[in-house]
Design brief:
Blueprint lengths: L7 H8 L6 E2 L8 E2 L21 E6 L5 E6 L11 E5 L5 H14 L4 H18 L13 H7 L1
Antiparallel strand pairs: 1-2, 3-4, 4-5
Keywords: Ribonucleoprotein, Ribosomal protein
Organism: Schizothecium vesticola
Pfam families: Ribosomal_L28e
Length: 149
Amino acid sequence: MPYSNVSADLIWEITRNQNSYVVARTGAGPLFSRDPLNLTNVHTRTHAGFVNDKALGIAPGEKGGVQVISKKANSANKPAARSTVTYGRNKSGRKTYKAVANQAAKAGYRGDLRQAAVARASAIRRSERTPKPDAEKKLRGNAAKRAAA
């Protein structure tokens, strides 16, 4: 959405109250965002991916794993030019987190995005795990004594 002749601050001021990414709930509390390039899902100027020239997004992969979506400054007004890198689910968690952190750091994205990107990748990996079976309930007290006798 950002055009080369329009500043990101102006775009934010125009669209911050009315855009398709805002999730407004009744009552007090923070506004949330569904922006795919917003790592924290909080509707703020610093995290809004559609406004910033350089943005980073983390999404679950189609066949498991993690997708890293990056928006570069030289193609900010071309949404189709976003690059996507997928880290498969067969890769270990630490290798995935290191790759995500390196991509955020070495490509010149803001420093605070690195920690948010790793946290998002970690949450996605955690959600893909198979749940542990419930532990068998142990008998305690008089019920255990009766079962032992």
